[in-house]
């Protein structure tokens, strides 16, 4: 129960329904045990003095008991089934809500397909245990206790014979169930791996087709699928032992009862009616005994799946509000990097980075590919966390500013554009609670996306497809830019956000952005010098640290890395013209 115990808080919300389900189980069991008792009395009556009226009364009692049993069986299953659905809903909602709080590092470690498997396949296994496993377990337990008492009242010696083999079954179940859980966990892990493989393949289908790798990917998926089938068969072979074991135990018990009980009838220790009643009770235990094996199967599946879910639920975000968080509701926009260092594993990407960005100014970050520009941009909204040093906004460490306040104040256009499978309008206003139509039109003009609306069949209502598959790279970047402008942020971060647009469109975007950037702090990274040469200050990163700071003119005069990058760009433009 170490994993399934995490379900208790969710189940506690529905304790009234669970109690009603338990009462239904008790009532249904009471009606079910009445039938063998009446049957026994009827047989004894027929043996000693048949009476049609009494027989009719016994028949009516059996029919009434059967109806009562059916009603409460329906009540217990419908009640617990509802609870299981509610618990699944709450658990899935809690898992999704928790996933929203986890940081980028977690998603770098986890595969999307595996996360989807945990939220679907594993959730379903947990729900099935709550719905069927819990009902079977409770009804089996009640049935075993009640029937054992009634059998002992008929003849305790005969009851001992019937239940003599149960300890052996329990020991076997405990031994087998441990291995079952391990094998089912292996099945679910492989399902997560297979889901990841399929998800990555579908997302990268254009690359697969461009490199003619369809057959290779099909073969790779076939191998993963074969492994999944193999692990499933290994689990099924072991779980299949439990069911025959139940039938064998019941068969042995019935044979012993028939032999020993028959001798007791011959010796007049019990009547024929009592013997029939006893056998009817034994038959009533057949399904509970079989159901016990079924329940153990479901329990192991539910426990293994819950363990996988809790691996995610127990993961705490490294980037979160703490007791040091200050009650700050808004920021003004002055930024300072003070001896900032960031590393991935044992490798330092940034080290000793220090510079200031005055409020309302524009600062550009340039450098060679892989120097850490995007990493530096991610530190401002705390998408990433500095390993040493501080990032300050308005003189306050960003780790002391509430995350909601901080990220609401930042409009971030990341290097890798992501669009949702929704309309262009929904993507452009994402993150804005009450979008204003005039502000939207302005954002579209600034991003130069407005001129593309005529080319789209439904204009702003065009569904862009998964990850914006129906748009070009430039259109996706401009949609992300419009989304950032719509937020009207205090701090605007443009992380190489115009790399996929042509130079003419870039010039038009920059012209429109000047009015937007005038009253807000702006950080820009770009590979083209033409994108950032008009910035108030330019910070040059080299070997993970700041090598130059100044305006475009000052850096050209200095003759450092920036000047060399600018000369190479001019040469490249001349070659393209020629």
Task: Compose a concise summary of this entry.
The chain has 578 residues and is an alpha/beta fold. The protein has helices spanning 8-12, 15-48, 52-101, 104-109, 112-154, 156-163, 166-203, 205-210, 214-239, 242-266, 272-284, 286-313, 373-378, 403-408, 424-428, 437-446, 473-486, 503-517, 529-532, 552-558, 561-577; strands at 335-344, 347-357, 362-367, 388-393, 396-397, 410-413, 491-495, 521-525, 537-542, 545-550.
Total beta strands? 10
Report how far apart the termini are.
74 Å
Count every helix, treating DSSP H or I runs of 4 or more residues as helices: 21
Low-confidence spans: pLDDT under 50, at least 5 residues?
A: none
CATH fold-level assignment of the largest domain: ABC transporter transmembrane region fold
User: What does the largest sheet look like?
Assistant: 6 strands, mixed
What percentage of the residues does DSSP assign to strands (E)? 5-15%
Layout: helices, strands, pairs:
Layout: H1 8-12, H2 15-48, H3 52-101, H4 104-109, H5 112-154, H6 156-163, H7 166-203, H8 205-210, H9 214-239, H10 242-266, H11 272-284, H12 286-313, E1 335-344, E2 347-357, E3 362-367, H13 373-378, E4 388-393, E5 396-397, H14 403-408, E6 410-413, H15 424-428, H16 437-446, H17 473-486, E7 491-495, H18 503-517, E8 521-525, H19 529-532, E9 537-542, E10 545-550, H20 552-558, H21 561-577
Parallel strand pairs: 3-8, 3-9, 6-7, 7-8
Antiparallel strand pairs: 1-2, 1-4, 4-5, 9-10
